[in-house]
Amino acid sequence: MQSTICSFDLAHLAHVELLTPKPDESGQLERCIIGGLLAKQPTTRDPNQTFEAQSTFGERVADKVALLGGSWTFIGLFFIGMASWMALNLVLSCVAALKAPVIMMSQNRQSAKDRSDAKNDYEVNVRAEILIMALHAKPDSPRDEELVRLTRLVEEQQRALDTLRHR
What we know:
Layout: H1 2-5, H2 28-39, H3 47-54, H4 57-69, H5 72-166
């Protein structure tokens, strides 16, 4: 355990009366400090180095993230990233805003085409109806004339019978 507390070996200072182990008089830390003073060597270590040596990988990563996150560089990069993201969304919103009227114009054009087709279909239907009526009228015309002629004949015969009855 001396290597974790003292930075030098106390064995070569055993001749010094102060450093001879005496139970419960002084702890290991105190002996290390006294030994360092007598040997004229520094006994203190840099606490940052000790702390760094004892830190885990996760703690070192967390320290580096905190170092970056708490800097003006991070604030600047964050602002640039946020502004870029907002600009991209603004561009996409503008594209969507322009796309809607173009789609509506296309729908209006399709609607006008559908009305034109419907008008044309109506005209074709009216012509077909007129032609069908004309075709029905052709055979009906001679038959109608025959019916009128026969009706006249029946009426003449009826008059003739009436005259014969009266005589």
